[in-house]
Amino acid sequence: MNYYLLTEEQYKELKKENVSFMRKNIEETERVVSTTEKIEDSKRKFYSNITLSNYTSLNHIKWVGDGTRIDTEEIDEEIYIKELDN
């Protein structure tokens, strides 16, 4: 699995059938995703679900707003449904 921070523009180009997790930041200007697709020009690449989770902890104001993080369990177990994505 590959983990990325993407701008909205980058996300729009992503093949949604390859996405297993997606979360928008609070301002809805960026998204973190897990995908089987390899993205060369992402805003940031994370080496694991743990480093993605740690990033959201360090930047919690942008992602969760309450001093917590997006947990690794959420990244691994949340089901992405592309038909509900807007």
> How large is the count of helical segments?
4
Distance between termini? 23 Å
Strand order of the largest sheet: 2-3-1-4
Strand/helix succession: EHEEEHHH
Gyration radius from CA atoms, angstroms: 12 Å
- Secondary structure category: alpha+beta
Spans of 5+ residues with little confidence (pLDDT < 50)? none
Major sheet: 4 strands, antiparallel
Coarse morphology? globular
Provide the domain count: 1
What is the β-strand count?
4
The proportion of residues forming helix, as a percent range, comes to: 25-40%
| Beta-strand residue fraction | 15-25%
Task: Name the descriptors.
86 residues, 30% helix, four-stranded antiparallel sheet, 4 helices, alpha+beta
Describe, in plain words, how this protein is organized in 3D.
The chain has 86 residues and is an alpha+beta fold. Strand 2 and strand 3 form a beta hairpin. It has one domain. A four-stranded antiparallel β-sheet has the order 2-3-1-4. The two termini are 23 Å apart. The protein contains four helices and four strands; from the N terminus they run E-H-E-E-E-H-H-H. The protein is globular and about 30 Å long. 30% of the residues lie in helices and 24% in strands.
Write the layout of secondary structure elements.
Blueprint: E1 2-7, H1 8-13, E2 19-24, E3 30-35, E4 44-46, H2 49-58, H3 60-63, H4 72-77
Antiparallel strand pairs: 1-3, 1-4, 2-3
Short description:
With 86 residues, the chain is an alpha+beta fold. The chain has 4 helices and 4 strands, in the order E-H-E-E-E-H-H-H. It has a 4-stranded antiparallel β-sheet.
